Q: What sequence folds into this?
């Protein structure tokens, strides 16, 4: 059962709840507007695009993790009947180094260009070497096999610690370390960046501690695992205009990347975002879009490319493997006195891992008086990593939250008591600087403490219960919306956020609430880049907050115009007209409903179009505290999740079903990350499990129901109190499960995933008394 | 090139005659030859279930079936699940229970769930989870999908789960 706490059990939240307005639409659960299309198979995703004269593409990819590309010979491929174009590195301009913000991570355009199409070297297995367009996909695949590529294999670098060694093979000859004060190193390296954050006096803090625990952790590369593979269809028209239909988290981000890679003004590119079959951060960077565009330019025909699942694993942007050391000190009362972290994340073939958010999140749940965090962004011969749901935070939480659990055991303090005592609150300064506004970390701890789950005793052998907390920033950035009033009293909303999980309904509900009409009376559409104002990516848990705010502004704009119209109609000063709850009121008992006035627009001055934008940037941090019960099979090391409860501060739940869905989905991704998912590489840098059979994501048989506890601590900086909710649910699960495993079988897991062979190894080592010194 | 063959199959209750090459999968023919793009491709090697259709009433991954194998068979796809004037109870339950987020896996889940309910009109949670384990969803954590199937069982009288497929 889902419980909406609404702050009932908490004094502070009661105050928030008391000031909460009575909403008519917000907090209800209407059927999503795109629902019928999606349950009947009518919704059009990227791979469903059909155009007259469409060609189909295929790619040639490097079989080596690290190799010099000596030559590429495409004449045989071109000679195959039905082949219309082949592109290689010779078809791409070389953009200069320039960093562009993509909304959930930045990218150097020169690196992006080389990631899309390899130049001098292939830097990971699956790196694109050439692409082919042909009359059908089978001919294209046959032609791709006929492209002759001569490689000179180079030694690959496959782990973050190996890559940081002085004698490591160098991936990018011109890379220099950008260090703390912005200095640039003077010799070739694989370390792209070094971050450092400091607060207070760390040495003094540790001196004051009664207990200090320091541990090291390793986490494996994991993939977002969206079910829809990447795809792109492009038409480079004879007039130089390019249209791209694609599956993307950000149509504008895709357009801007294409402008850079194709050397075109952005006004000549239109990106049409199709329905998108999952992203989780992995569909922000472009992969196939520039290839489809270049193939179209060369062939003069529209070209469609769809990635196969192996390439999705080998050559898109998973989230980094990492090596992390965390040291935390606490006094006898269980108050944190100091904390230190050292994190190195694998960026993959080009710089840009989420190391910086990892550094900022590692201690973000707590009031840490003295702290220091060092972070390193390191290139290795694996695919260039990208954002994955709260990018960087889950790796860091695995380390910090299990060290805290050890401290709690040592001090004999209840883990929730410890978290309540040290919780970050309004006014707490994070180690990296920012001071929190009203946040709900303490409330999530309290909600778990009051939950049925926590109060129910766990029984049985080899069973354990664990808790962990997590933080994610959320983002604001830019969003746009327009809303047109139609004569029948309904409103057509066009907004710029590609909809991955029902967001168009959450946005439409905010417009409906603003106008005092029903959610069903708003028809939302996701616009293309020529049809709606600039909108940043669907990422950073920002859409319901920011695009919702843009829709609210569009609603306010409509209200202002309707007040004018009513004034005109009644021949009164518009200042005398009020708009309330879907009705306009004038002097005397003048009254007209939204719907009645909508029917009169043609005769009172024509169409009414509301517009709204948002650049607000106080999305409110998201906090979560989870509790999990596990059952460990000591014979096999297999962990079964018996019960899972996730408490989260969700601000205001606009559509509670979809908020619960974000929590449940994030938790199950976190369970997969904790127990099974990892890229398994051989010594040559070949991923040995690049399929859904061998890269083991949870199925519905692997997990129980996931119980969300939605705590509503409204964000004071949003008209409806919205906070981002989508990302933080993935942060606590690995640590919570590790803590539960410890309680079940007495071993501490410091490697992800905690797969059966790894856990069994630790159990057997513990039984034979062969403990590692850290146990 | 091997010559194309003419295949006749009963698709969503109507007889269809189509031309296909022997190497083309049922998934490719449904999507690219017959224009039935509601059946989705997630992996093309039988691991994700996004392309699930019913072949003579049994749930199969259409990426693992060659189109020529369907000669004389019944094939039911997502496009045939709803009746002309109303959704199938499973579709309605998925909508009301918010059992989809991105929606790419939804057609496959609906077809697998239909196959389950056609042979077992009162499955336990365990039986539902087992029957749907061949379909991957990365968005929902499965909770609301399982509940939607349970809701369908609870709200449909005997026989209602027959649906409109035939």
A:
């Amino acid at each position: 059962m889902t419980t909406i706490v609404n702050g009932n059990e908490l004094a502070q939240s009661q105050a928030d709840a008391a000031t909460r307005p009575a909403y008519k639409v917000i907090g209800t659960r209407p059927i999503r507007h795109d629902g019928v299309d999606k349950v009947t198979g009518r919704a059009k995703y990227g791979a469903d695009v059909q155009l007259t004269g469409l060609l189909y593409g295929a790619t040639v990819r490097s079989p080596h993790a690290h190799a010099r590309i000596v030559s590429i010979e495409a004449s045989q491929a071109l000679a195959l009947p039905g082949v219309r174009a082949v592109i290689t590195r010779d078809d791409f301009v070389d953009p200069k180094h320039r960093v562009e913000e993509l909304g959930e991570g930045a990218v150097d355009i020169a690196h992006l260009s080389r990631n899309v199409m390899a130049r001098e070297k292939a830097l990971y297995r699956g790196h694109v070497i050439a692409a082919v367009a042909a009359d059908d996909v089978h001919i294209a695949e046959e032609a791709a096999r006929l492209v002759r590529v001569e490689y000179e294999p180079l030694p690959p670098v496959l782990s973050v610690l190996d890559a940081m060694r002085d004698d490591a093979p160098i991936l990018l000859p011109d890379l220099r370390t950008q260090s703390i004060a912005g200095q640039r190193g003077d010799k070739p390296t694989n370390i792209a960046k070094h971050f450092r954050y400091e607060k207070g006096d760390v040495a003094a803090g540790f001196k004051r501690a009664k207990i200090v625990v320091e541990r090291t952790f390793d986490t494996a590369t994991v993939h977002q695992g969206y079910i829809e593979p990447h795809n792109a269809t492009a038409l480079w028209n004879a007039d130089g205009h390019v249209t791209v239909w694609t599956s993307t988290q950000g149509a504008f981000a895709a357009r801007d990347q294409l402008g850079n890679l194709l050397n075109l003004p952005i006004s000549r590119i239109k990106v049409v975002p199709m329905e998108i079959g999952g992203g989780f951060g992995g569909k922000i960077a472009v992969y196939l879009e520039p290839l489809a565009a270049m193939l179209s330019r060369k062939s003069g025909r529209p070209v469609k490319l769809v990635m196969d699942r192996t390439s999705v694993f080998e050559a898109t942007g998973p989230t980094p493997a990492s090596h992390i050391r965390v040291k935390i000190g606490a006094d006898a009362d269980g108050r944190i006195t100091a904390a230190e972290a050292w994190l190195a994340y694998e960026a993959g073939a080009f710089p840009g891992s989420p190391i910086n958010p990892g550094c900022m999140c590692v201690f973000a749940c707590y009031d840490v008086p003295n702290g220091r965090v060092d972070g390193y962004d390191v290139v290795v011969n694996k695919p260039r990593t990208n954002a994955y749901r709260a990018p960087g935070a889950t790796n860091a939480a695995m380390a910090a939250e299990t060290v805290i659990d050890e401290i709690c055991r040592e001090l004999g303090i209840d883990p929730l008591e410890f978290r309540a005592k040290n919780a970050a609150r309004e006014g707490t300064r994070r180690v990296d600087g920012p001071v929190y506004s009203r946040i709900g970390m303490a409330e999530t701890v309290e909600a778990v403490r009051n939950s049925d789950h926590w109060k129910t005793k766990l029984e049985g052998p080899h069973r354990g219960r664990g808790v962990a907390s997590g933080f994610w920033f959320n983002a604001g950035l830019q969003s746009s919306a327009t809303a047109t009033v139609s004569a029948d009293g309904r409103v057509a909303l066009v907004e710029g956020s590609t909809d991955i999980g029902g967001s168009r309904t959450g946005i439409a509900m905010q417009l409906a609430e603003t106008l005092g009409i029903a959610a069903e009376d708003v028809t939302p559409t996701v616009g293309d880049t020529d049809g709606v104002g600039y909108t940043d990516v669907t990422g950073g848990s920002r859409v319901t907050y920011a695009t919702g705010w843009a829709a609210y502004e569009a609603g306010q704009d409509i209200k202002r115009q309707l007040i004018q119209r009513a004034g005109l109609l009644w021949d009164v000063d518009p200042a005398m007209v009020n708009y309330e709850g879907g009705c306009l009121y004038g002097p005397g008992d003048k009254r007209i409903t939204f719907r009645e006035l909508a029917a009169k627009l043609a005769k009172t001055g024509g169409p009414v179009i509301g517009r709204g934008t948002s650049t607000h940037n106080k999305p409110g941090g998201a906090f979560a505290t989870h509790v999990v019960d596990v059952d460990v099979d000591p014979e096999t090391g297999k962990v079964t999740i018996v019960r899972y409860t996730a408490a989260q501060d969700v601000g205001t739940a606009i559509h509670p079903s979809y908020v619960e869905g974000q929590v449940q989905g994030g938790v199950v991704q976190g369970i997969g990350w904790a127990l099974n998912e990892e890229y398994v590489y051989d010594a040559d840098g070949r991923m040995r499990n690049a399929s859904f059979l061998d890269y083991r994501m949870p199925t519905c048989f692997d997990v129980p129901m996931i119980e969300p506890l939605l705590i509503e601590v409204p964000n004071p900086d949003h008209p409806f109190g919205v906070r981002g909710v989508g990302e933080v649910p993935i942060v606590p699960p690995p640590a919570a499960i590790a803590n539960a495993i410890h309680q079940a079988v007495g071993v501490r897991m410091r490697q992800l995933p905690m797969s059966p062979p790894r856990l069994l190894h630790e159990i057997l080592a513990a039984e034979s008394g062969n403990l590692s010194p850290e146990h | 090139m091997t010559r194309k063959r003419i295949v006749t199959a009963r698709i969503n209750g109507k007889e269809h005659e189509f031309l296909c090459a022997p190497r083309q999968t049922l998934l490719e023919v449904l999507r690219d030859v017959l224009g039935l793009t509601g059946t989705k491709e997630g992996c093309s090697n039988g691991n994700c279930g996004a392309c699930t259709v019913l072949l003579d009433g049994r749930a199969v991954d259409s990426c693992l079936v060659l189109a020529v194998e369907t000669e004389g068979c019944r094939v039911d796809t997502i496009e045939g699940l709803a009746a002309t004037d109303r959704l199938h109870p499973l579709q309605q339950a998925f909508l009301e229970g918010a059992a989809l987020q991105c929606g790419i896996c939804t057609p496959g889940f609906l077809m697998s769930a239909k196959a389950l309910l056609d042979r077992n009109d009162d499955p336990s949670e365990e039986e539902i989870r087992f029957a749907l384990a061949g379909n991957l969803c990365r968005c929902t954590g499965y909770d609301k999908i399982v509940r939607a199937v349970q809701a369908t069982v609870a709200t449909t009288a005997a026989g209602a789960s027959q649906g409109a497929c035939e």
Q: What stands out?
A: The first strand of chain A starts at residue 3 and ends at 4. The longest helix of chain A spans residues 543-570. Confidence is low (pLDDT under 50) at residues 1-16 of chain A. Chain A has 21 helices and 30 strands.
